[in-house]
Design goal:
Blueprint lengths: L2 E5 L6 H9 L5 E5 L2 H8 L5 E4 L6 H9 L1 E2 L2 E2 L1 E4 L8 H11 L4 E5 L6 H15 L4 E5 L3 E7 L5 E5 L7 E6 L3 E8 L5 E7 L14 E5 L4 E7 L5
Length: about 230
């Protein structure tokens, strides 16, 4: 297993990130643009940095340009601001090129809803390359289930991220949906894109087992109530 952690430039709660990163076992750290400022705050030295660097403090970038990791200069890849992909997507592509089997994406949420949706959408690319990726912030952990590539998701009660577990269809229909060990179980059901039927479920037993037969859906674990 090769686990790559990507730290990008959206909103990041540093206290949460510091503790969450300590809980991870990862092999490589990729940092995207303003994510360098978070890396500096957290005392992290990346293996690879990518971006057009339109949001990062130039003094921070200059400091990392002089640093080394394991005796080698940090790889810093510059891209033009006018391009056909976000910096975060380019970092995910690089992780796939490096044969990552697991990717954790931090700093991918915030007030720019377009970027949030685009970052969550990257889960579709990774699952279709048989790569397990999660988008994580202080209140949510998001992954994808796919009827062809990753049709089962198990979440143990002692390992769950918060209280609520929701399933959101990404395809017009997600078929053969079964929820075992849930407060609101389902058996071989069909859920529809745009429906709120499978929002705010909870684990009723030792673990919840989510399986689907066809389609794609997001699995979102949430720690806070709606506000």
């Amino acid at each position: 297993m090769k686990h790559i952690l990507i730290l990008t430039g959206g909103y990041l709660n540093a206290t949460f990130a510091r503790e969450y990163i300590r809980s991870l076992s990862y092999d490589r750290l990729f940092v995207v643009d303003k994510g360098l400022e978070y890396a500096q705050e957290l005392g992290l030295i990346p293996d690879y940095v990518v971006g057009d660097f339109d949001t990062v403090n130039m003094n921070v970038l200059a400091q990392y340009e002089k640093q080394e990791r394991q005796g080698k200069p940090i790889v810093i890849e510059r891209h033009p601001a006018k391009k056909n992909a976000t910096d975060t997507e380019i970092a995910v592509w690089e992780a796939m090129e490096e044969n990552a089997t697991v990717i954790t994406l931090l700093g991918a949420t915030g007030s720019r809803l377009d970027h949030v949706l685009a970052n969550v959408g990257l889960l579709k690319q990774t699952v279709e390359h048989n790569i397990f990726m999660q988008v994580v912030d202080e209140t949510n952990r998001i992954q994808i289930v796919d009827g062809k590539f990753h049709s089962e998701c198990r979440i143990r009660r002692e390992e769950q991220f918060g209280t609520y577990i929701s399933l959101l269809s990404l395809t017009d229909t997600t078929e053969g949906v079964t929820l075992q060990g849930a407060c609101y179980p389902l058996t071989n059901a069909t859920i529809y894109r745009g429906s709120s039927r499978t929002i705010s479920n909870e684990i009723a037993e030792d673990e919840i087992i989510i399986t689907i037969r066809k389609g794609q859906a997001l699995v979102i674990e949430s720690q806070d109530t709606w506000r």
